């Protein structure tokens, strides 16, 4: 997914305007010229400047569609695969705490491995194996409080 | 002399040596796994060091950091996923070498110059610590402002394709750095009522997202074909050593010196040393056009710099108790717990402990070569694992690594957001590196700008009133001027 110069320039100008205008609501340091707003405003100006240059370059150059698909995104299923991966992480964020690290991580790994056409027996081995290794290393050795959820703590 | 003998006695015990060896293996493992940083390795070691005596405790952290910074080069070279932020500066370049089938050249250079760099930094730490720290201590906000600006300017040079895209990436990073409460005015900015965002965007999950998750997304979307063109086996990493030293001793020395200076500055560590060195190497190279296409020169200079900065970061940490980087910041906390309050008194009352730490520095950089070689040999197996299996597993480690950095789901959310952002940026040929640099240096730049302005009553001329500040300021202006002249020439030459 590639934005044309005009599109990217436009997005950057809009973002810079939003940042710049919102920054003006930050309170000043009393008696000082430069406070919390100074730095974000400077960033907004620089970003807006880049946006303007891109926008102008887009207007002067040959006309392009606003959004073009890069080579690999035209492969059937490519965008779907990226979307499934993002949704898998979202699922972890939402479900790990109530359900527990081990079942959620194993399920996510299984979904992604199947998506990538890994044979089912390898899927089972890698999904469960990786989850158990991570659980052992991070929970027991490195003492990271991975969410337990409904799962009992594994015997290590 | 008694103190040095006592230091040898402190180090030459099996507990210390065993601790150093296990810390070395742990550092290699963590550094080689993409998404786990040297800082995280140190942070994860802290609970274990509480059960140790002071010397092995500090020794494990020293060794672990040196190994992790080197090992970060391995996935950076073989998979283009930097294992630690300090490797990010030249991950593209090293990967380009791997694509040409010369991974052993890149990894051999990384191993050799990491060890030499570490020893160089240690030598400076041992012999010049007090003097150098005094110079750095004289720096005021004006000098820090220019140093930060110089780093950001170098970031603009690092963007290969288009300087505009580099500046866009930098601005995104700088914007991310403004989020939270951590600013001179102490005002929550862009937090939109979120308590977790008050502390700002955590750097580690952001880096995992930008560099690892975006790569995983791209790979999975492409159906995870087997690694393309990448080298099947890494040859003899020692083969090129003689030639590299003869050809690139200038770059090595420049990287060592610059890395040591940057490391000795409070607040600037291995990552900034690597970035700045890479940019300088490119700037002064006789063949700058080869940079980015798999050219060893920049790798030599920046890998020399990041390991030497790691040692010299201890100069302000040990002598004045000011952390040189994130790793020494954690170590300072441990030193206080151990009753070894960092500061000049440490040299007066417990010199044997300081000398023992120095000895461990030398030891760590010497064992780096055999252990690093083993790590490189084992890392080859990463390539034999099919990508379809590896990518979901890397994603799993990313999720857990991001979670571990904050011990909350917030880290995973940040990681995902930056993964999608990085994916989109790469699609539009916006380089990721300046963004990361903006996130790291942004707060330093802002703090010193506002402090300087408050001190000077809003006068811009005060940035040139102190000699070192004036020198640094003129340097920054010269760099920008050369950039503008380059643009003007390119504009005139266009058809």
From TrEMBL, chain A:
Protein name: Tripartite tricarboxylate transporter TctB family protein
Superkingdom field: Bacteria
Record field: transmembrane: 33-56, 77-95, 101-118, 125-150
Keywords tagged on the record: Membrane, Transmembrane, Transmembrane helix
Domain DUF1468 per the UniProt entry, residue ranges: 8-147
Stored InterPro entries: DUF1468
Tagged with keyword Secreted: no
From TrEMBL, chain B:
DUF112 domain mapped to chain residues: 17-437
Pfam families linked to this entry: TctA
Coiled coil: none
Keywords in alphabetical order: Membrane, Transmembrane, Transmembrane helix
UniProt keyword Amino-acid biosynthesis, yes or no: no
Transmembrane intervals: 28-48, 55-72, 111-132, 144-161, 167-185, 197-217, 257-280, 313-334, 354-376, 388-421, 468-488
Keyword Nucleotide-binding: no
Full protein name: Tripartite tricarboxylate transporter permease
Organism, as annotated: Chelativorans salis
